[in-house]
Design goal:
Strand content of chain A: 15-25%
GO molecular function (chains A, B): double-stranded DNA 3'-5' DNA exonuclease activity; metal ion binding
Oligomer: homodimer
Shape of chain A: globular
Organism (chains A, B): Poriferisphaera corsica
Number of helices of chain A: 8
Structural class of chain A: alpha+beta
Family (chains A, B): Belongs to the DNA repair enzymes AP/ExoA family.
Helix content of chain A: 25-40%
Distance between the termini of chain A: 6 Å
CATH superfamily of chain A: Endonuclease/exonuclease/phosphatase
Keywords (chains A, B): Hydrolase, Magnesium, Manganese, Metal-binding
EC number (chains A, B): 3.1.11.2
CATH topology of chain A: Deoxyribonuclease I, Chain A
DNA sequence: CGTGTTAGG
DNA sequence: CCTATCACG
């Protein structure tokens, strides 16, 4: 079973730029999308309930903003929306589903890059997400968190480490949070397989030549608990789809199911 | 002396689409611009004080909205901004200047097409403008009003006359207002020279094929008092500049000065 | 720099 | 459909 996480930076724009073609090449069985930036009714008709997929949309209340979705080829059940007890998730950031005995969580952390106000939001969110994820980790079933965490963990996860030490997404306490996360028992499959090298990046600014020069950040993660690690297989990052369709590349893992 | 009126529908966009080249072909001595939609400081540097021109900008207070300007090759003096006694004109709709003994008034009437609220504004504006223009008309010096009036006067001034009888810009009372205006003693030079034919249009919707099929409206006027009529010469409408650069075409008159 | 929004035309 | 805006990333 192939599971892909992809921040599409506006599904409508991605569709115009060849989303369909990229998806058929990446060929996932489970697709976790972030930054859909559309209510289902705003999508072109054939994309609201795409043929051959079971789809759950989880849009933000605010139009054109944030929002996640899970697409599965086999039927799935929704376990929860959001990380609050009451199931509220006004920005559509977490969608928790079960498919073929595996729990998948589509995650989209707030970005703090557009000001102190948003950074404060992000940090509040991190505080709540950490204990939530801790509980989930202990399950006996495979649990896979996939999504855009908007944090690069180590200098290997960001091209310009030095100059970004004060940038949201690479602040010391954000890096520490990402570390805690992994230390508590989640495996970071991309890093595990890539080894101790620079990259592989999954996001590139579209200012300047960051993309063609591969000066990016690794902020899209696939994280799994012990049970998931037992069935975890190959990782692939489709840089082309990133460049053509979004500012993020889709990250895919093969699970032995 | 060639005097041109042109609604540029955003000077910054027009510049990107070849404004400079069209202006040098049209070759006016006096240029009256409407819908500049920029504060001078938002324009590319070389356009803030274009070489070889004396320029007065008259922007709206609201960013990216409305705004007029007068460019002259000879020096000009500003007689007034707006039509209120106190010189206020928050939407930058009237700029009154004198150049080489001729008074030119750059006029941009509100559009009512985007709703009742805007239509009410337009009508209030029409009520104030009429007596203002009446006073001006009686001057012994040539007075030329040029601009976008957002009203087509007769069925000859609009392609789809029948289907627009309830459209803002061709409402019976608007047409009557335009008629009063001309009857009080302003000459409509474009109509005078074109004679009793359909068109020539100066604005085309950019929906559908309105432009290539020349299904437009004549809403840009050059109107003059008696003294102006004595020196009024040839009219030209540069349809190409309209199609390439804006949704309006520049309208030019030759004055014997 | 890009994807959305909204007002206005 | 097009030009602007603004929020957000």
């Amino acid at each position: 079973m192939r599971i892909t996480t992809w921040n599409v930076n506006g599904l409508r724009a991605a569709i115009r730029k060849g989303f369909e073609e990229h998806i058929s090449r990446v060929n996932p069985d489970v697709l976790m999308l972030q930054e859909v930036r559309a209510l289902p009714e705003q999508l072109p008709k054939q994309w609201r309930n795409p043929e051959g997929w079971h789809v759950t949309w989880h849009p933000a209340e605010k139009k054109g903003y944030s929002g996640t979705a899970i697409w599965t080829r086999d039927p799935h059940t929704i376990i929860a929306r959001g990380i609050n007890e009451d199931g509220s998730d006004p920005e559509g950031r977490v969608l928790h589903a079960k498919v073929k005995g595996t729990e998948v969580v589509c995650v989209y952390l707030p970005s703090g890059s557009s000001g102190d106000h948003r950074q404060a939001e992000k940090e509040k969110w991190m505080d709540v997400f950490m204990p939530w994820a801790r509980k989930l980790k202990s399950k006996r079933t495979p649990v896979l968190l996939g999504g855009d965490f908007n944090i690069a963990h180590t200098p290997r996860d960001i091209f310009y480490a030095k100059s970004n030490e004060k940038s949201s997404g690479f602040l010391p306490h954000e890096r520490a949070w990402m570390g805690d996360f992994i230390q508590m028992g989640y495996a970071d499959y991309v890093r595990e397989q890539a080894g101790d090298i620079d990259g592989p990046y999954s996001w590139w600014s579209n200012r300047g030549k960051a993309r063609e020069l591969d000066r990016g950040w690794r902020i899209d993660y696939l994280l799994g608990n012990k049970a998931a690690s037992r069935i975890a297989g190959n990782i692939t990052i489709d840089r082309e789809a990133g460049l053509a369709c979004s500012d993020h590349a889709p990250v895919t893992i093969e699970l032995d199911i």
